[in-house]
Design a protein that fits this description.
By secondary structure, the chain is an alpha+beta fold. It is built from 3 helices and 7 strands; from the N terminus they run αααβββββββ. The chain is elongated, with a radius of gyration of 25 Å.
Length: 154
């Protein structure tokens, strides 16, 4: 004897499928919000008031920044428009993943005459260095530097 597919069966299948979809969506949304690193600035309106002036002052410095990971160290090169190394007055940097804050750390960078060097044991993947440096004239230089650490080849 064959069972008959009734309207109630179709409604139950329909409701069950949408319940699964909604549950998955809510779970993903919850995890996305809980793992977001946070705000860039506390008040975006206040930050926007000086954005253009800050950007122009930073661009006038002509600095370029490059980061590498080599032999258990992070090498952060800051160079001027002529390619000469720059020693800043003050350097604050946070090293972390782009997707969460659990791996965030503050490396102890030291200037070696060419670049800034800090010990770090980094796993493979993409890392961000969120740096804030101060020039001799007091200009603040902010940049997020992407650091890619490749997988070691066997």
């Amino acid at each position: 004897m064959q069972k008959k597919l009734t309207g109630w069966h179709v409604a139950a299948i329909f409701g069950g499928a949408f319940s699964i979809i909604i549950t998955v969506n809510l779970t993903l949304a919850y995890n996305a919000v809980n793992t977001f690193p946070g705000l860039e600035v506390k008040n975006s309106y206040v930050a926007s008031q000086s954005f253009d002036d800050d950007r122009d002052a930073q661009l006038a410095l002509g600095w370029s920044v490059l980061a590498e990971a080599r032999d258990g160290q992070i090498l952060l090169s800051v160079t001027d428009a002529n390619g000469a190394p720059v020693e800043v007055v003050n350097l604050d940097a946070t090293l972390g993943r782009a997707t969460h804050v659990q791996d965030d750390s503050t490396p102890a960078f030291a200037f070696d005459g060419k670049r800034y060097v800090a010990p770090a044991d980094l796993g493979p993947g993409n890392w961000n260095i969120r740096m804030v440096a101060e020039a001799d004239d007091g200009t603040v230089f902010r940049q997020r530097v992407i650091l890619h650490v490749p997988k070691e080849r066997s």
